[in-house]
Amino acid sequence: MSERKRIFVRQVMKREFDVVDGLNTITEALATMKHHETKCLIVRKRHEHDEWGMLLLSDIARTVLARDLSPDRVNVYEVMVKPVLSVRPDMDIRYCARLFNRFNISRAPVVDGQEVVGIVSFTDLVLKGLCHEAPGDGIEVAPL
Hints:
Elements: H1 9-12, E1 19-20, H2 26-36, E2 40-43, E3 53-56, H3 57-65, H4 93-103, E4 107-112, E5 115-121, H5 122-130, E6 131-134, E7 138-141
Parallel strand pairs: 1-2
Antiparallel strand pairs: 2-3, 4-5, 6-7
């Protein structure tokens, strides 16, 4: 029997992400998202005992766009999710996928100690974790 290969969140997470303030407007947040072509932003803590937040494009669509609100008059804190479930960089991607499924989320910040070190999504888990390049430029599914 072959030994299972362990793949950890740190191996598949996005290391580049942007952090915004909860007092920013949705217009300001969208400018950051558009510039960096991302689907979410981390919302910074207000103090050391606060929790991280996350602003998703889908939340903006449901809260601002669908209700016909002005993005110049809505602040990030009115739309963001807070607190967010976070994952550790040393979590096995299979457990991360199970956590996402159980709580019906598609992405989460990766927190090491008290700092966000990345963002991981279902897309990252599957495309970077489950699939890998095979010889001859093909895609091969990694046995877990």
